[in-house]
Amino acid sequence: MLPRNLLIVPLSLWLSTLQADPGDLQINFQFDAAGNFEDGVAAVVMVEQGRPQMGLIGKNGDTLLTPAKNQKVQAFNEQLAPIMQDTRWGFINQQGETVIAPQFQKVLPFQQGLAAVLKEGHWGFINNQGQWQIKPQFEAARSFSQKLAAVKQDGLWGFINNNGNWQLAAQFKNALLFKEGLAPVETADGWGYINPQGETVIAPQFSQAQAFDNQRAVVSKGNQWWFIRPDGSALSDKRYQRVKPFRQQMAVVMRDGLYGYINRDGEEVVKPTLDNAWSFSEGLGRIEVDAQVGYLNPQGEMVIPPQFKWGHSFKQGLAAVTLDYWKYGFINQQGEMIIAADYDDAQSFHEGLARVKLQGKWGYIARD
Asked: Per residue in 191-201, pLDDT tens?
């Protein structure tokens, strides 16, 4: 482990380390805020004269995009990230280079080679060179999914293909993305589901509906929530105050203010008796009982008993936890403290690095 008091050592000295051990400092504590690494890039913030300035760094700590005021960067998708500079949006690549100059009022991430963008009050779609694939003409738009995009015209939603031709004319009160061959749409009778040919597969009847994910979708009527299958049948006869989408074959449900888990057959593996619960990650569900965080397995067995004042879900085999709210470290799936609780705050590992906070500044430590 590297000493924790070497905050003034030049960054270049840290970068000369060829072999890292768990918890070794990889990028020095120097940021006022820091994001997770995704595709080798992380967003960071440095405050200058009271004003936050956002930029991008690589995994060796090098600056890819110089922090600047009035600059915001969103997540990369299809190797491009939306960037806002002085109220206008464009796109940059993973080297921090501007690929599409900021010129749009709003943008959505690239999906299937196209991005929905708002210019002069109308939405259209550009390709990854910034050229118009579908000229701006819509009141609203969603990203492409399964070669179709929901767009709004004259107050109603329909679907277009990637040439801008109508696949389904604007006719719905609202519409979401196609996933697994079905899209939620809203009519005067409520939310239902259609196929790409516009045929009603599940009749409009719900107050709210979400897209299908692994053959399960979340729906509601009034204050009751549950899951349905692609044929519209309910996963079970149980109804809940709140549900979260399935993750790793398990879903969080809430009844009477308490949380539990169901499996993909709708069986309550853990009845709603927990104070809080989060989606499964790496085979374990994070739960809270009597203001203590612990972890259980898909059989509902407590693998790591509730004992932490706070904890995050497992990522890359480790979870950031604290016993006292003051110092954070990382445990393995046996509950052993692998990286000592030396930090004022800590977040999950992503791509081998975790952001940690010490003396008011954020840096990154190594997983291995």
From this structure: 999 999 999 99
